[in-house]
What we know:
Elements: E1 3-4, E2 7-11, E3 14-17, E4 22-25, E5 28-29, H1 34-45, E6 50-52, H2 53-61, H3 68-82, E7 87-90, E8 94-97, E9 102-105, E10 108-109, H4 112-128, H5 133-171, E11 180-183, E12 190-195, E13 201-208, E14 211-218, E15 224-226, E16 233-235, E17 239-240, E18 246-253, E19 260-265, E20 272-278, E21 284-285, E22 291-298, E23 301-308, E24 315-321, E25 325-326, E26 335-337, E27 344-352, E28 355-363, E29 370-378, E30 380-386, E31 391-397, E32 404-409, E33 415-417, E34 424-431, E35 434-450, E36 460-467, E37 473-475, E38 481-485, E39 492-496, E40 504-505, E41 512-518, E42 525-531, E43 534-540, E44 548-549, E45 556-561, E46 567-571, E47 576-580, E48 586-591, E49 593-597, E50 603-610, E51 613-620, E52 626-631, E53 641-643, E54 649-656, E55 659-666, E56 673-675, E57 682-688, E58 694-710
Antiparallel strand pairs: 1-10, 2-3, 2-9, 3-4, 4-5, 6-8, 7-8, 11-58, 12-13, 13-14, 14-15, 16-18, 17-18, 18-19, 19-20, 21-22, 22-23, 23-24, 25-27, 26-27, 27-28, 28-29, 30-31, 31-32, 32-33, 34-35, 35-36, 35-58, 37-38, 38-39, 39-40, 41-42, 42-43, 43-44, 45-46, 46-47, 47-48, 49-50, 50-51, 51-52, ...
Helix pairs in contact: 1-2, 1-3, 4-5
Amino acid sequence: MAESTGSIYEFDGFRLEVDERLLTRDGEPVAIPSKAFDLLVALVENNGHLVEKETLYNRVWADAIVEDANLTVQMSAIRKALGNGYIQTVKGHGYRFAADVHRLNGRREEYVVEQQTFARVTVEHEIEANNSDRVVKSLSSSNASMLRVATATFVCVALLAAGVWYLNATKREPQIRQPKLTRLTSSGNVHAVTSSPDGKYAILVLREKEGESLWLRHIETGSQKRITQAENLEYLGLTVSPDGNFVYAPVLSENSADPPLRKIPILGGPAHDISNIVISSSLAFSPDGSRVAFIESHQPETHLVVAQSDGSNAKDLIRAHNSIREFPIWKYNPVAWSSDGLTIAAGFSEKGENGSLSGVMLVDPNTGKEQIVIEPRWANVYEVAWLDADNLMFVANKEDWTNQIWKFNRKTGDVSRVTNDLNVYRWLSTTDGRLLAAQVNAVSSLHVAEVGESANDVVASELIRESGYFSNVAWGQDDYVLYSSVSTGKPEIWRIKQGESDPRQITADSNIYFGMTISKTDGTIIFSAKQDRKFAIWKADANGRNIQRVTDGADDFAPDVSADGHIVYQTSSQQVMRLLTTDNAPVELHRGLKPVISPDSSLTAFFMMEKGEWVIGLVATHTGGLIRKIELPTSVRQRRMKWHPSGKFLSLFFEEGNTLKLLQLPIDGSSPRIIGGFGTGDVNSFDWSTDGKRVVYSVTTETQDAVLLSDF
């Protein structure tokens, strides 16, 4: 009889069943990510002893490419599942589990047919053994016959089970062969990267104290040369011309809504702008360098365009309305021109009954005829790059929030996975049969700062830090801070209070996405969420329960709630702001982005475009009439704002060099106030306390390096 003797461990009300992959507390299941479960088993098995990081890597990730940050985020998930005190960090070495653990021997019968058959043979043999030798001999023969039948039965069942397993296994994705990964940089400050046509050089955008700069790096030797000085701007894309002489890059500076395309000599020298190409992502060259393909944004549409390399003779190949179809437009490599010049590959998303799904199409650069070669079944397809005439590489994710690299073969139609790790990949390009990309690790933290009426600098305290992204943050009831985290493998709402060390997850299956706000009246949580691949506004009570859908749209984001219970939000496809009245009747207010309602509910502020520049608009909340526009006195790259509870000014974070500062912009036109001391990084979200004396903000610091992948 075959047995399974998997172990069961108990400690402080917890029960860890290894074979069942189940963690319970007082009989109730405890949610924990798969990798975190494996790490917990490894630690509990070695309770009281140091387990080195390398041991954990080898056991849980085997040959996968992982960073320390991946281990950190899983340990954070364990601590959230168990509470603090169980996992001890041994700095520079690994971790130790500390608890009074009791081990039980688990026993589970697996081969039922075998158990029943052999039990019957044994019993009959024992009964007849008390008779004459003749009977015993006869039964022994019969017993042997029955044994052969039982054995044959078991073998047949086992073979059948193996066959079923094999058929199911062959339907899975093919075994992933881990590529060879070579790090080209280790500074962590690579913002973007692409390769030269001959495969010898990598062109890097580096983030420095004074801003972003462009560098040329020899791949084999590591020697590098500065192309441009650091400037207070952001590179939104990188492409090298086929002759290898110029870098083409859209750049975002100040509050310009129309990034110019800059043509930069690759060995340095004066650059000039190509004013008739306005894009926010990389373009692609035809093999002879005479034409370019790119994605233009003409809200509410995105266009796939071809033009001469100087921007003349532009022609729309495909015009997509965002309510039906959309091309990626922001800081990606969304198009790639094949080496034979006959095909342009482009990532896209389509919206339908099943929500928004992404795929890849091939387009004739002369006629615009399209062929969808990778059906829309992905959550997102961001970037494409031709490896050779037959193989197209692309960066995509399913529902796991991790952008991985995949390969599509035109001849066979096969799609195979190239990377399989916990990192995020961006800025994909190909070079001499290899892949060049940026590999990203992100760490986020929550901070609270006391903001006085006259101080120009603050001292902020940290609430929590973990790997990944805190995309939303808001003050809740009883001085709790609510925030979104993907530490359990999917986006949920958590809460924590100053002075506490253990955050608590308060939602299950919320799938919170872009935007969260809290009603000051009763603590109702209003948020944007992705359900069934559609984005809508949802609400929950102050404890994260009783989740209900509020809007029926497919792309509703960025909600804010007024004191009288009205909700404003943005529809992404049309960039229209809507007011949802208390009887759930939506009213269009104005075209704009990221609306916020004043404390007295009379005004709604939002971002809008004015002559190619971003400005702030003010409309009457209940009528939508435009009242005034406010110019931004400084460059605000991340367009997120909040009303101060006094209602006298709007607040926005911005970067001065690499330092975070808070802009207080009075709505009466008086001089703005700038406050420093908020540290460094990218502010994802922020909110004021009810009394207006404290601000909570989430900061993400990304370490991003250039990597070369081969042998895949």
